[in-house]
Amino acid sequence: MRIYYVYILLCSDNSYYTGMTNNLERRLFEHKSGKSKDSYTFSRLPIELKWYLECSDSRDAIQYEKKIKGWSHRKKKALIDENWSDLVKFSKNYSENKDSKI
């Protein structure tokens, strides 16, 4: 069975990069070595792996990656820190419905 990884990197400019791969070690090496001059991380080295998730289905990994890419910086940080209350607090649905009685 193949494993897919969704990961978050912290870049030198304090931004986060979210990606997906089937070989996390190889992909981290590629990011750190500056393999692609057109990549987001190339001008933001050094980078640090802050979080990853293993998935057994590539479709799930792609879905998680797309979802996390749309999150704010503070919501990604809450995920990395496993701060579940802030993760909920920083979600759009929670913010829009925090005063509802549902």
Automatic annotation (TrEMBL):
One Pfam family it belongs to: GIY-YIG
Residue ranges of domain GIY-YIG in the record: 2-79
InterPro entries: GIY-YIG_endonuc, GIY-YIG_endonuc_sf, UPF0213_domain
Superkingdom of the source species: Bacteria
Record-stated family: Belongs to the UPF0213 family.
PANTHER family linked: UPF0213 PROTEIN YHBQ
Protein name per its UniProtKB record: GIY-YIG nuclease family protein
